[in-house]
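Running co-folding for adenosine monophosphate.
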Amino acid sequence: MNLLVVGTVAFDAIETPFGKTDKIIGGAATYICLSSSFFTNKLNLVSVVGEDFPKDAIKMLQNKSVNTSGLQIKKGEKTFFWSGKYHNDMNSRDTLDTQLNVLENFNPVVPVDFNDSEFLMLGNLMPSIQKKVLDQMKKRPKLIVLDTMNYWMDHFMEDLKESLKEVDVLTINDEEARQLAQEHSLVKAAKIILSMGPKYLIIKKGEHGALLFNHQEIFFAPALPLEDVFDPTGAGDSFAGGFIGYLAKTNDTSFENMKRAVIHGSAMASFCVEKFGTQRLTEISQADIDARINDFTNLVKF
Ligand code: AMP
């Protein structure tokens, strides 16, 4: 099935207890595309970069069968830049800098070949831009997943609540769920968030796994215990890419299949954190993914 991915394509500068990078390739959509490319080759990207974005990085996405004809390249402008520093526990981070640059006036244009995609991943982006993409779809996709973060909740909460009315699945982390619902208990927060529009909610809890809720049921997937977590950047996006990629591949959006999709998302996130930036996602093979799914099965089987 066709999967349309919208989100940031960015430069990131990252600091973890294990090291520091200058500007490297990042962005929510970059991680999502790399992750979902293991599940579908009908992968379309809508995003924007500046003239400073390396052609090699675009080629790298194309080599992963990402159709980049919806990636705008803005002459004389600069690519979105984000910089973050992780605390020693690696579960929390501070954003040091967010430079919107090309995102400030980004008007997403969904090419006609993409506007009937069955699966739509609205990656972390300004909520009004996510909405503009929704409005351009010729028919409602079979499944719409939206990811967001505290930055957009702090600045554009009302816009975000508007978009939430139209999506099927929302993915956020535990702190963001508490902020969105204004409620500390995650179970109560989930009920409040599900009343805002989404039919399913995924709460990501970093090294403590992920919870999938609908109105009746809850499913929990652990994170794989890893000896070394090098850089958690992009783990949430890799999760989202694996989740929706698996659903697009299997074309089954039942709650039972979403459980399997959550495990595939968790597997992709577990690879992402093993090296800085997107590097690990560019090295792994299908056999690595199969072996890791097996590790997940063995972890919880009793
Ligand atoms: P994650 O670690 O999964 O939350 O995602 C990290 C990625 O999100 C980085 O590669 C950043 O470029 C991107 N990012 C950081 N802040 C924002 C933001 N406000 N909007 C969209 N993308 C962002």
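Result summary
The chain has one domain: 3-300.
Residues 8, 10, 12, 26-28, 82, 98, 124-125, 149, 151, 233-237 surround adenosine monophosphate (CB under 6 Å).
Job closed.
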